[in-house]
Amino acid sequence: xxxxxxxxxxxxxxxxxxxxxxxxxxxxxxxxxxxxxxxxxxxxxxxxxxxxxxxxxxxxxxxxxxxxxxxxxxxxxxxxxxxxxxxxxxxxxxxxxxxxxxxxxxxxxxxxxxxxxxxxxxxxxxxxxxxxxxxxxxxxxxxxxxxxx
Amino acid sequence: xxxxxxxxxxxxxxxxxxxxxxxxxxxxxxxxxxxxxxxxxxxxxxxxxxxxxxxxxxxxxxxxxxxxxxxxxxxxxxxxxxxxxxxxxxxxxxxxxxxxxxxxxxxxxxx
Lengths: 149, 111
Fold this sequence. Notes:
The structure holds two protein chains of two kinds.
Chain A: E1 8-10, E2 18-25, H1 31-40, H2 48-70, E3 78-86, E4 89-95, H3 122-129, E5 132-135, E6 141-147
Chain B: E1 2-7, E2 13-21, H1 26-38, E3 43-47, E4 51-54, H2 56-71, E5 75-79, H3 83-91, E6 99-101, H4 104-109
Parallel strand pairs in B: 2-3, 2-4, 3-5, 5-6
Antiparallel strand pairs in B: 1-2
Helix pairs in contact in B: 1-2
């Protein structure tokens, strides 16, 4: 990893208590450090357990998907992360420069014929770890919602 | 985050995962286990006692290693999953693919 990650933390006087933004270079070695950086600044409205496991795992999945399938490991591109936090919880937006995809077209990794596949569990895992998952119309931005608690 | 390998007197390799097993470090784990497999080891325990989280790439590398070890007549067992990680294996149904012990000691005793 050569480029240091820079998390911008703001406390705007509007809708959210805290807004954080982070640009992540499109290389998989940045996933772990980016997850740790955001998790360390996660709002107190989330329990330590949900920060330790749910937030970290779901964010790692979203970043890896954006880097690999969205930006195709192109290190001249960045994945943009925006975290909006308030007393009700946290929303994490992860956006890449790709053409997007159809989430409904991802096969169920728990079917017997898919169980021994090495890949294809990311979206399934992610959906089970957060309270809500939404995509923009293009499919190149995912929004993960973790409610307080 | 790091991986430690220890071989007991019966030749069972215990791999400790300290921190996380994710897309950024899964290849390191894979290579260490494959090197041990090439070196003649056939019985493996991966110990997650000190592991915070595992992403789908980490799960995928475990599936891949399990297959490769079985193809060589060996066996891979998992141990030390906390409640969240156990749930992850259950919801992905990977608990049906792996022998999972509560502790590394129990996994070793089962060989």
